[in-house]
Amino acid sequence: MTASTSTFTARLTEAATSVEASLADLLADKAHHGEIARPARLMAAMRYAALGGGKRLRPFLTIEAARLFGHEGEGPLRVGCAIELLHCYSLVHDDLPSMDDDDLRRGRPTVHKAFDEATAILVGDALQTLAFEVLADSATDLDPAIRSELVLGLACASGLGGMVGGQMLDLAAEGRYGAAHLTEAEVRLLQMMKTGAILTFSVEAGAILGRADAAALRNLKDYGRALGAAFQVADDILDRESSAEALGKRTGKDQEKGKATLVDLLGMDGARRECRQLVEKAEAALEGFGSDAETLRAAVRFVVEREI
Asked: Which UniProt keywords apply (predicted)?
């Protein structure tokens, strides 16, 4: 294990521990200021969806990007938690019978299986709105302009022009609304929206908190886009080569539904080559940050080398 890998692993673990504790506080039963009450079943299901699993890569990226500009502490942690709440909502809704119809997530029953479908829908709704509540709170940043930029950024990344729009394209790719034969460009667009947009914003959010200048922000967005694309290609490779037991979720879904991925279009060797090229692109975007960005460089290598 290299020094940079060791540092990355330690920081990823540290971030995951802090995020878990902060999420637990945000999802406690006691009503927050402005709330009337928190229904017990809803809270239990929200905690089931958001706690006790996942690498917390998205909050980690936010925390590390902010660290580049000397901005650490509660603000980056809260923004990372907001993005993670949004991500968890997307997983809950993605697993629903009307979407991917999955029974397994992170090695245990999905929320609609552990509770029921109606509760799962409300869990997703509540996690999503809580994410924006966290971003809009002055505890996240004292500057209302920064909070506004964060809210706008997450809305754009997660909404119709980002993740939700990508999910719509994903459903269409299954042939639900007529014949679907996606080109390479269409697959890339789908993945950029459904998966890449939130990962890119996770990096951008740290730069916003750190008051990055235009050039630094542009470079970090380029890094985030490359990392997001690499994440999805690596995920497609894992879906073909790994098992449900190893991944903690059902594999081979795209093949079952006849939905093309870059593995299909480029071949396995081509997909691996794509991953290597994306790592190089991500690392090139960080050149101006020198050794301060070594943990972010390790993060993109982790994304393509991971086994779960």
From this structure: Isoprene biosynthesis, Magnesium, Metal-binding, Transferase
Q: How confident is the model at residue 74 (pLDDT cuts 50, 70, 90)?
A: very high
262 vs 222, which has greater pLDDT?
222
Q: Where are the domains of the chain?
A: 3-305
CB 84 within 8 A of CB 23: yes
DSSP string of the chain, one letter each residue = --HHHHHHHHHHHHHHHHHHHHHHHHT-SSPPTT-----HHHHHHHHHHHSS-S--HHHHHHHHHHHTTT--SHHHHHHHHHHHHHHHHHHHHHTSTTTT--SEETTEE-HHHHS-HHHHHHHHHHHHHHHHHHHHSTTT-S-HHHHHHHHHHHHHHHSTTTHHHHHHHHHHHTTTTS-----HHHHHHHHIIIIIHHHHHHHHHHHHHTT--HHHHHHHHHHHHHHHHHHHHHHHHHHHHS-HHHHTS---HHHHTT---HHHHHHHHHHHHHHHHHHHHHHHHTGGGGGGGHHHHHHHHHHHH---
Close Cβ partners of 40 (under 8 Å, ≥ 6 residues apart): 29
Amino acid at 210: G
pLDDT of residue 175: 82
**Bigger pLDDT: 142 vs 244:** 142
Distance, C-alpha 239 to centroid of its chain: 17
Could you read off the pLDDT of 213-240 as tens digits, one per residue?
A: 999 999 999 999 999 999 999 999 988 8
The domain 3-305 belongs to what CATH superfamily?
Farnesyl Diphosphate Synthase (1.10.600.10)
Name the token pair of 31.
Answer: 């009503």
Single-letter residue type at 212: A
Which is it for the CA torsion 134, 139, 140, 143, positive or negative? Answer: positive
